[in-house]
Design a protein that fits this description.
Layout (H helix, E strand, L loop, with lengths): L4 E13 L2 E8 L13 E5 L5 E5 L10 E6 L7 H7 L6 E5 L13 E7 L3 H13 L4 E7 L8 H5 L7 E5 L10 H4 L7 E7 L1 H13 L7 E5 L13 E5 L5 E4 L5 H7 L18 E5 L2 E2 L7 H6 L2 E2 L5 E2 L3 E4 L2
Parallel strand pairs: 7-8, 7-10, 8-9, 10-11, 12-18
Antiparallel strand pairs: 1-2, 1-6, 2-5, 3-4, 3-6, 12-13, 14-16, 14-18, 15-17
Keywords: 2Fe-2S, Flavoprotein, Iron, Iron-sulfur, Metal-binding, Methyltransferase, Oxidoreductase, Transferase
GO molecular function: 2 iron, 2 sulfur cluster binding; metal ion binding; methyltransferase activity; oxidoreductase activity
InterPro entries: 2Fe-2S_ferredoxin-like_sf (IPR036010), 2Fe-2S_ferredoxin-type (IPR001041), 2Fe2S_fd_BS (IPR006058), Beta-grasp_dom_sf (IPR012675), FAD-bd_FR_type (IPR017927), FNR_nucleotide-bd (IPR039261), MRET (IPR050415), Riboflavin_synthase-like_b-brl (IPR017938)
Length: about 325
Amino acid sequence: MTTPTLDVRVVRKAAEAVDIATFELVATDGGPLPPFSAGAHIDVHLPNGLIRQYSLCNDPAESHRYLIGVLRDPASRGGSQAMHEQVREGDLLRISAPKNHFPLAHEAGRSVLLAGGIGITPILCMAERLAVIGADFTLHYCTRARARTAFLERIGSSAFAPRVAFHFDDGEPAQKLDLEAALPPPAAGHHLYVCGPRGFMDAVLSYARAAGWPEAQLHYEFFAAAAAPSSDDGGFDVQLASSGRTLRVEKDQTVLAALIAAGVDMPYACEQGVCGTCLTRVLEGEPEHRDSYLSPEERAANDQFLPCCSRAKSARLVLDL
């Protein structure tokens, strides 16, 4: 399945903080770009052939540009390295229209925003939107050091600056994040949003769940999936419900790869179980979930899975394909 794309030009590339660059993108024809909402991201087709997702961090009221922030990851699988080393001002890029798997709950009576490192990109857009509509919120922003803190000036000059607390790993102990103080007790209308490195997010979400926060009031977006064990993986079958055709998925092969090799037209992007692009309904069988996209309740239902990374506990899965 071909995902519609559009061509944009990089009109500005700037160093935002240590190892963080921002890229300003405009339509090649100078026209307006598709609208987006706070929390949205775009798929970026990189010069090396990879596709990566980056959150939009400019004002959604702007239709003339998109702004993304990219951390140069020392453990990069080629995405952030390509953005930092190969993409220059004036270059053309192909991107998707904005998608939002991390939307704001506009009915919230109170919102708590927690960002770790480059996780500030969608969270900042949320904070600015909440400020515009006069909502009650606080933002906790955790980074390794002030020099590695993106958008410091933008946040400091904002009207909501008094609602923001910065927490630096190399700072004094008193200013470090205290989850008990940062998170109010769970209550109707309270919503929590968190984005950042895996360890940071796991710590925040584990604390919130232990404190009794309902899953429906927890909102999060991972940038990368956790590594899943594979030494015990075995092969299994997937059946396409539309035709009855059965495909074998070998132990060292993803379901997505098997489907594509068999000529099945599948949408996909991250191939890590993060973005949700390849989400597929499961009609029979029990999937083994290895993604970072589905909620615990969605996983427990076992009626959908991410074929780019997840596998099967049963000998066969029947897919709605």
